[in-house]
Amino acid sequence: MVDKIKKWLELFAAQLHEKKTYLSELDSAIGDGDHGNNMARGADFLLKSLDQSGDTSAVFKNAAMALLSKVGGASGPLYGSALLALSKKAGETDDRSEWIAAGAEAIAHRGKSEAGDKTMLDVWLPVQKALADGTLTHEKIDAFVAETKSLKAKKGRASYLGDRSVGHIDPGAQSSGYLFHAFLEAGADHA
Amino acid sequence: MLIMPEIGILLVSHVREIGDGVLRLLKEVAGDVTIKAAAGTEDNGVGTSFDRINEAVTSFEEPRIWAFYDLGSAKMNLDLVSETTDKNLEIQDVSFVEGAYVAAAMLQANASEDSIHSELKPLKIK
After folding, report:
1. pLDDT band per the 50, 70, 90 thresholds, residue B5
2. Shortest Cα–Cα distance, B3 to chain A (Å)
3. pLDDT of B29 strictly over 60
């Protein structure tokens, strides 16, 4: 199982590198423009963290610590908290929808955010639901990401823009989309 | 004789120079209070670092630490550190510069905790 998890995080890191410019462009529209760079830097350390040995819980924990230390913006503590929650949950169950539910809960707690605030949570929550129903596909993930476009931001720097945040994809939702594409691609969505 | 304050001050900012600058300002009025800054990322970029904050928190000799921060994501990292550290980390949701300044000056003057909190109250930001 641990190999699939490592593959998942490897693919995620590769996507973050590949889409670095696009993520920063999204963030320039409604934030401070650093999401691509921050996540790419985190991705380098995330990859390094995969060299350490350990079970699935340890892999998630090492990845969390890498993102916490190296991603300077809000996405560091948000992704870090989510991965710490996955680390804990993976020690209790193999049920992937429970893992993602724990991750979403951690993001909501850390960011004091809820569904509809135009954050990464607006991808994590519907992904969790689709996963529980056994209906998660790449197309659905893209749709969840695209749906953040019509939302008005209520958290983070984007919220200062008010109505002008409408019409833009949330960068954290987009990077979470990459996370879940990698999840499916690596076959990490089942034990 | 001045009693050693049991509370230290931690300044968390996205920019190293802001942390250093506020620290310098506070030292003007609070030479005997332990004040530390954890500002910027580890490569001194803009942002905050869980590791840097955690190291600063661990290095205090005082049993209690009052933390002041500049932006929301600094607070997220502080929250994470406070959930994982053994130290008594008290995050102050007040204006960064003025809040930390008032607290430092009053700690230096051995003001009571109640009186410091009542001075900080109008500086609350959320």
Report:
1. low
2. 36
3. yes
When divided into structural domains, chain A yields a total of 1
pLDDT in tens, A105-142: 999 999 999 999 999 999 999 999 999 999 999 999 99
Integer Cα distance of B34 and A145 in angstroms:
46
In the numeric block, the tokens 């996507």 are attached to A15
Q: Is the pLDDT of residue A170 over 90?
A: yes
Contacts B80 to A, Cβ<8 Å: 68, 77, 80-81, 110
B9, HSE (Cβ side, Cα atoms, 13 Å) = 31
Indicate the average pLDDT of chain A.
95
Mean pLDDT of A169-177: 97
Rounded to two decimals, the ipTM of the complex is 0.81
B106-118 average pLDDT score: 95
B77–A77 CB contact, under 8 Å: yes
Q: How far apart are CA B119 and CA B123, in angstroms?
A: 8
The reply to whether residue B51 touches residue A69, judged by beta carbons under 8 angstroms, is yes
CATH of domain B7-123: 3.40.50.510
| Token pair 């030479």 in the structure block, residue | B31
Q: Which domain holds residue A177?
A: 2-185
Q: Evaluate whether residue A44 is within a structural domain.
A: yes
Query: Does residue A9 lie within any of the structural domains?
Result: yes
Kindly compute the dihedral angle of the four CA atoms of residues A155, A157, A163, A167, in this order, to the nearest 10 degrees. Answer: -100
A80: nearest CB among B14, B72, B80? B80
Q: What is the reported pLDDT for A32?
A: 83
Q: Say if CB B98 and CB B120 are below 8 A apart.
A: no
In a domain, residue A159? The reply is: yes
Which domain CATH number covers A27? Answer: 1.25.40.340
Residue A103 lies in a domain: yes
CB A5 within 8 A of CB A60: yes
